[in-house]
Amino acid sequence: MTALTFLEQGFTRRNRRRSFATLFLLLFLIYFLLPLFWLIVSSTKSDPQLFSTFGLWFAHFNLVQNLREVFTYDGGIYLTWLGNTALYAISAGVGAALFATMAGYAFAKYRFRGRGVLFAVVLGSIMIPQTALVIPLYLLLSKVGIINTPFAVILPSLISPVGVFLMRVYAERAVPDALLDAARVDGAGEFRIFRSVSFRILVPGFATVLLLSFVATWNNYFLPLVVLSTPKYYPLTVGLAQWNSSSSAGGGANVLFSIVVAGSLVAVIPVAIAFLLLQRYWQGGLTAGGVK
Amino acid sequence: MRFRSVRRLVTAALVVAGVCVATVPSFALGGQRAKTAQAPVQITFWSWVPNIQNQVNQFNASHPDIQVNYVNAGQGEAEYQKLTTALQAGSGAPDVVQIEYQYIPQYVQLKGLANIAKDIPANTGKQFVGWVWKQVSPNKKTVWAIPQDSGPLGMLYRTDIFKQNGLAVPKTWAQFATEAISFHKANPSDYLADFPINDGGALFGMIWQTGATPFTVKGTTVTINLTSPPIMKWANFWGNLIGAGDIAAQPDFETAWYTALTNGTYASMTPAAAWAPVFLEGVAKSTSGSWGAALTPQWSAKGAPINGNWGGSTSAVTAQSKDPKQAAEFADWLNTNSQSTSEFANTQSLYPTLKSLANSPSYADQQIPFYGGQEVNKLFAKASTEVNTKFVFSPFQSEVYTVLQDELGKASLGQETFAQAMKNTQAQIVTYAKQQGFTVKT
Amino acid sequence: MWHTRRRALQRTLVPFAFLAPFLVLFAFFLITPLVYALRMALYNERLVGGTVFVGLSNLEQAVQDPSFYTGLEHMALLGVVQIPIMIGIALLFALLLDARAVWLPSLFRLGFFLPFAVPTVVAALMWGDLYAPSFGPLAQISRDLGLGTPGFLTSTWMLGSLGNIVTWEWTGYNMIILYAALKTIPPEIVEAAAVDGATPLQTALRIRIPFIAPALVLTVVFSIIGTLQLFNEPQIMSVIAPQVIGTSYTPNVYVYNLAFSSHEFNYAAAVSFVLGGFVFLSSYVFIFLTRKQR
Q1: Cβ within 8 Å of C, A 40-99
Q2: What residue numbers bound the domain in which C81 lies?
Q3: pTM for this predicted structure
Q4: Are residues C29 and C139 in the same domain?
Q5: pLDDT-derived band of residue A177, with 50, 70 and 90 as boundaries?
């Protein structure tokens, strides 16, 4: 038996195993994509067809009409909602990622009094149920005078305790102390070091937290539902839910299911695109990147 | 190259954060613009009636001293949640708010509404149907809201299916039960009607129709009787039909319910209300011409017919309003102005509460093709005159609904009888009312 | 002398300068409402008779509230079954993808992660329609196969149906965290094991999984917290199946109904603190147990 045939055998066996594993994951992929396929199929149907035809296949193709309705219904307010959602998600995403990066970096790279307690408090805060804070937060925001404005959504969304946690772990591993000391010896100030040395290394983590906060704000429902009452400030989730419930208005009810379905599809697309564009970061992972 | 993009990112982030903080004050001040002599009074108005902006525009055009800003703060639950939060927080409520009859006593109890008796013309009440006005004005000195629309109960049914199965329109509930059983036997996958298990408003409309008065309120003393003979009769009646599987017990206004209503799985919408004819026309277009409307079946074949009400809204002025006079003026105009109300009735499909409008020939005599040319509005005008005037809602109606739905849900799954469900509801509500500080009689 | 003191002061202030933006917002938008909520829990405001100080009696009542425990039991059951399944699948995916054991790894990563892009509100509505017994496509397929109508929305299966939605939403997210952790394993270690003749399975069990144990613990703790606080999904399902999902199906649904249906804001605050306590306790117990094992 020569070395060559041995290698060949090994290769084909590995290939076979790989094909088997791929097939296995393919089954799961169908499961994960099935509801999205349903969403695509359903957004091509008119209201009567939505519930009278088979849900997982196309009927009469009504997508264009549905999309036109999505963007023109109620004076085209959907576009406003889309713009609001983008504004909230981008500003909260960038802000939360930046603040979490700075805080995580401080926790990772500086020793100071109260560090442990402070970090425990930050982490512990994710255990508080949001329903507990609704009324107090509303009260607070209305005292400050920003209830029912975009700030009522953006400012609370700038806090990402999970982001701080992830960035601390990331900074501990990715930023070598030696590098910081070298920079200090060169006479650089702490902020300059952060800006021009550490942050560069932290960019992959920053991008991941940015993505997570972006998605969390894009998909947030409870907070904007509570703090906003004017539809022109709504994000997509709250707006779509309002359209969805308008069918149960009794007197003057409007059945908008096909618009809600098509509107939901449109709402998912930007996030899917963000996933695609930021792939390099989140697929590379929090800890894999760094500057080499 | 890389370094630059990072710096740009940081700069961008700081700019965004900076802009956020810098613009806060200007937003915060937006709501508190100083009033000058000429500037009109600003009134915020929450409502979920489609296209009500038209009426608001008309009002603003004819009232230069008042500027109404319309906001759709959500439909039903969503709006109430915001209103409750705003009342609890002490600010953020609008001046004028859409509230259904069923929740008026509750928001009065939460000190959320202003008494506008002195801010509206003295003859306002006389223009409305008697029982409707009683719901918003318990006595002459108190007016909590101006009625907008109502929903006296009736029944909508598929004339074609009734004909095929040899069914007559039931005059009594006993007849309804017999037909429900025979219809389901002949069509095992279809039902004569659906019992809307989740819909407190519908359930209480039916309880209202039994002639029962589950609540009486005098100051802080409340009498609770959810187990009176008519109510127990009602519970057992539906319990038996549902238990035997002859009547569906699905939540209403849900996709499955729409589908069943459209494709004939449900041969009728019972209970239906006065706003339902136009609503059904919108959702079941494909069945146009094969529907009919009828009065609600009665519990007793003899005596004067009794009816109940399901749904319908009012415009109330909140206690937080800084300009209650102007707010009341708008609420009154919105629901008594002839142009505004006729638009509500004819284009926004609200069933009128003004006597003059409900009985006017141009409205009552309309022959509606969806119902085979029937004069449906006339029928509901009659249904409205039969509504029991003694019925009042409790000052904690959302709690009553929550408990009732929980209990009836269990009953519909066979975990307890419908009679037991009513007894449990009674016990829980009594406990709740006591906890809340009421003096409770049963 | 003066200079060095100023320097030292500056040194101690530096970390706080980095922390400042986060901490200011944190204190204002999280701690302040929290303190206020705690204060709320100590009072009782009734529909008749105004507000009175009641001390800890709300909390005492909450600790003994059977409705609260009904919800908690549901979530405990859901957590015990669903979390291991979800984390198990996520781990399997992460291992397969990291070991380059499949074709087209990018496609799978994106595909599995995509449900995370769907707002929970939309996800719950979507699954609600998929579950529907009359027009739902899953029921239609099942009937065509002669298997009858599956009872996704019945009281027997509701917890499973909710668990499925949660699994669908979060498996990809957990996979990404675990995958990222796997990437940090120094390649030398895995190579050395291969040279020693370890099978891929052995490498996975003995080297790669132990190496990412902290990340595994993290994902489980996040899942415990998320499960105990489940709200959006049951709330939306309650519209479709009100008979099954009552007012206290999950602790957070109960808190919500206490506040907005019963107008017992003070008691609602107390119940959410008890819930917070249970969340803390379960996370802590889990971390403690896994720490002992290592």
Answers
A1: 42, 51-52, 54-56, 98-99
A2: 59-293
A3: 0.89
A4: no
A5: very high
